[in-house]
Design a protein that fits this description.
single chain, alpha/beta, 2 domains, 11% strand
């Protein structure tokens, strides 16, 4: 993700604050889009654009916290930096627990805001890369046959070829063929790598132990 493709969204109902923040952010090479309300921001096409959100907590209509909640409900993982003139500890705890990168109190120091933006963009970069990797893993997994998925599940459970053969009622030779297909289609260089892939596929699956989540994801 290059800085040229990155957009820092600023949502604040005060025009002077928007202009000051926009000038600061542009001065370090980032593109900026400013909005006077949460509703105005929601009307834009922000879903597929790398970036972060600098968000005032107190806004007319939908508040900053309401917008944070709305984005979560929409499945949008856009890093948020909250700014407020009325910050307190309970408020900070609330927004940070909900996934905010930072809560800064007005007047915001330039260095603090720029540091938070760089942190937020780094988080966004990692998050987008992980989502792309997971999509690719899911595509590989979907290419497996039902029997290959069963074999993969048992491999990840630590079963030997003869144990897999006994459980599935097939020969060891057939297990070896399915095992080779699984490793090739999943592009796994080792069993440990395959287990890691299964864990990633299950990372947002059912709760419980890691093994239980893997079973849910690869069956």
């Amino acid at each position: 993700m290059t800085e040229e493709r990155t957009i820092v969204y600023v949502v604040d109902d005060d025009p002077a604050t928007r202009d000051a923040l926009s000038s600061l952010i542009r001065s370090v090479g980032f593109q900026v889009a400013t909005f006077g309300s949460a509703d105005e921001f929601l009307e834009t096409d922000f879903r597929d654009t790398p970036g972060c959100l600098v968000l005032d907590i107190r806004l007319p209509g939908l508040s900053g916290i309401d917008l944070q909640r709305r984005l979560t409900e929409m499945g949008v993982d856009l890093p948020i930096i909250f700014i407020t003139g009325h910050g307190d500890i309970p408020l900070a705890v609330q927004v940070m627990k909900a996934g905010a990168v930072e809560l800064l109190t007005k007047p915001v120091r330039d260095e603090d805001l720029l540091d938070a933006i760089h942190q937020a963009l780094g988080r966004d970069r990692v998050s987008r890369r992980e989502r792309l990797e997971k999509i690719e893993l899911r595509q590989r997994f979907d290419s497996l046959t039902r029997r290959e998925r069963q074999v993969m599940h048992l491999i990840c459970d630590g079963r030997l070829n003869k144990q897999i053969a006994a459980e599935l009622g097939i020969s060891e030779v057939t297990v070896k063929l399915h095992r080779a297909n699984v490793m090739r289609k999943m592009k796994a260089g080792s069993v440990a790598g395959l287990v890691g892939m299964a864990t990633k596929l299950a990372s947002k699956g059912s709760q419980g132990g890691t093994r239980a989540r893997r079973r849910s994801a690869i069956r």
